[in-house]
Amino acid sequence: xxxxxxxxxxYTASFRLIIDETxxxxxxxxxxxxxxxxxxxxxxxxxxxxxxxxLDLTVNARDSEHRREIAHILRETEGVxxxxxxxxxxxxxxxxxxxxxxxxxxxxxxxxxxxxTPGVARVSQSIHDNxxxxxxxxMRSNSVAVVTDGTAVLGMGDIGPEAALPVMEGKxxxxxxxGGVDAWPVVLDxxxxxxxxxxxxxxxxxxGGINLEDxxxxxxxxxxARLKEExxxxxxxxxxxxxxxxxxxxxxxxxxxxxxxxxxxxxVVSGVGAAGTAIIKLLLAQGAxxxxxYGRNGALxxxxxxxxxxxxxxxxxxxxxxxxxxxxKEGLKDADVxxxxxxxxxxEPEDLAVMADRAIVFALANPTPEVDPVGAAEYAEIVxxxxxxxxxxxxxxxxxxxxxxxxxxxxxxxxxxELLRVCALAISNxxxxxxxxxxxxxxxxxxxxxxxxxxxxVRDAASTLPRHELPVQExxxxxxx
Length: 481
Known about the structure:
The protein is α/β, with parallel strands linked by helices. It has 18 helices and 14 strands. The chain is globular, with a radius of gyration of 26 Å.
């Protein structure tokens, strides 16, 4: 069964039914639903009166069309009355997914005078005298802004700031759940590069770090570069660098399984936007020597860069050392590694047959991978995707929570390539060599060792990076009086 035919918890639906058992058997109803390929995950009887059962039937479907197909079958089945349909994913978003909870209780006048007026004035004056105290005495000590303009969201593209907000809320939940970091969605109703830079600089005093998210290329490159240069807090573009970190972590372990070295393998990368660019640069930093990037018009090559923007030209000049031409399918010949960060279904499994022995395939387009993972496994020894319903999920949540946890704890001012490489090594080291297998090259997203390993690696690397020179703790806790 292809990747686009799998049922998913993303499409969990509950159907409230009344079944007249004198006219239809319960098992028949369940068989009709199962025959569509749906996975029945729950059957809860609410009431039974005179042979009529009132119940909630919960299923995982493939997509919205599949859910509608199930509803149609239920409506057309004699003896069944469909009362309502509830979509679990939409219900989980009602009212939003995050909120604000106070850390300091206010139960009496004394509490109020310390948390707010008049006591807060002493703290404000102290920060005015030494602005670095804000890293201890305000929310910025543990806060990250998740900034987007909604132009490159998931597999949907330019959907705008309002539609991007649920994704940013979800990102904030992951920050908190896996890293203990308070993250705040900041969705901007502008696509103007200069205005985005100006806004982020203006709000920066409230945060300890900036996480750029789902901003289209090539604008994302300039926005990140400018903000890194003009702010004194770390700026991280997760679509670029979070993806690159986890890809490198997975590749380090995959190469161990197939007994190859990164400096010896040929790597083909499909997609040379934000993620592909960052992946290539980080793989080069790890020692890769033979990488070919493919865009819509074929292989990037340093001898054919007319019309390229600066970022694309730079990428062409650092890759494809043998000046290989042609299409992606042609470029797969003798490649050891395929990394896809482009679009779904651009390859057939048999296209992988020309790759080198013991090939590695990372098909990371979401929700539909570049090639069917099940079919790909017939030609490649190791297959990874960005999906949770296949082995070896390449998921950015393995990187950014621990990375920012370590950054905030260490008061690091900037994120460089070496820090990203260290994070990738930390993730790969969660799995011991004896545990590695073709279906276990990367830790699971719920492995609580991952954020601990990553944050520790960041703290260990902090001595080599610029840090905020903060006041010693005993002075931070008081004012000058």
